[in-house]
Description:
This protein is mostly beta strands. The protein contains one helix and twelve strands. Strands 6-5-4-3-2-1-12-11-10-9-8-7 form a twelve-stranded antiparallel sheet, with no helix packed on it. Strand 9 and strand 10 (178-187) form a beta hairpin.
Amino acid sequence: MVFNTKRSFILLIFSLILSGCKENTAPESVSDYDYFPVQSGSISRFTVTRTTYFPSGPQRVSDYQIQSVVGEVFNITDKQSANRIAYISKWSQSEWRTDSSAAIWRTADKAFAQEHGQTIIKMYFPLSEGLSWNGNSYNQGAEQPFRCVDKGKPKQIGLQYFPNTVTIVRQQDSTLLSKNKYIEIYAAGVGLVATEKIHVKYCYTPDCSGTIVSGYEEKAVIQELNTL
């Protein structure tokens, strides 16, 4: 009887030690590059909801799908390569159609993408909470501060849970007359998983103050990622 009691006590202590080890196990290390993977053949599909506001008349809500398809590698310079990327959209029952094509690439300290023919610095490595940089440094556009927030935070995006994400704030300002917001959320090992754009103007007369009179809101949420 004494033997069994001692054995039970030893097993209890052993199990508590194992439990403590599991709880204190450090999370798997994630490289900042994992937020911006570049892999030929990967396809990300998003659902997009866009709400458009008009000065007169009801707002219009549009839902559609968009795919980003990472293509072949090509050389930008003798020392730098990039991947082509195509954006394909589908509205309601229509067929998929190519909207535009661009390029994405990474260097040791930056992640780049072409947007409307302009080179944008999407990320600046190493990422850290509150880090800010000019996203338009490589084009002729006005200075546009980008900011890193919520680095390493888990997020629920639609119906999917991502344990490690980072949010890039591209624009976030508001007044009594307008609101402008543009954020991108990236998940480690996946890449872009959500975007939110808000560009609206408010009524300024006392009878309708705070009411949106023009502009749009757009949210995109990843639904599927396929890689080769």
